[in-house]
Hints:
Elements: H1 10-22, H2 27-34, H3 38-55, H4 70-119
Helix pairs in contact: 1-3
Amino acid sequence: xxRTHTTYTPEDKKSIILSILxxxxxxxxIAKEKNVAPTLVSLWxxxxxxxxxxxxxxxxxxxxxxxxxxxxxxxxLHNCRAEARKAKAxxxxxxxxxxxxxxxxxxxxxxxxxxxxxxxxxxxxxxRPRRAKKA
Length: 135
C-alpha cells in the first residue's frame, strides 16, 4: 500500500496552529480531527513558537556589523590590488600603442606633404562642417 504525500497550504497550517494555541485540547485530538499526523502538528507548533520567539527578540541598535572576516577582507583587497596592477599595465601598453600610431600618422602625413610638393599640389587641411546654431 503506497502512501500519498499531502501538501498543506499555509492557511491550513495556520488554522491548525491557532486551534492548538486557543483551544484547551491535545495535539492528538486536533490532529485526528484535521486528519494530520500528530508529529507533523507538533513540528508546526514548534516552528510557530520559534518564529514568535525570534520576532520578539531585542534588535541590536546602530549599524550592523560587517559579516566578512578579516581573512576574507584581506583576500578581497589583495585581488583588487592585483586587478589594479593589471589595469595599469594594460593602460601603459595601450598608451604606447597610441603613441606609436600617432607617430606613424605623422610620418605618413609628412610623406604625403612631400609627395604633394613634388607634384606641385597644395595640402589643404580638411574642415568639419560647422553645426547650425540653435535659436
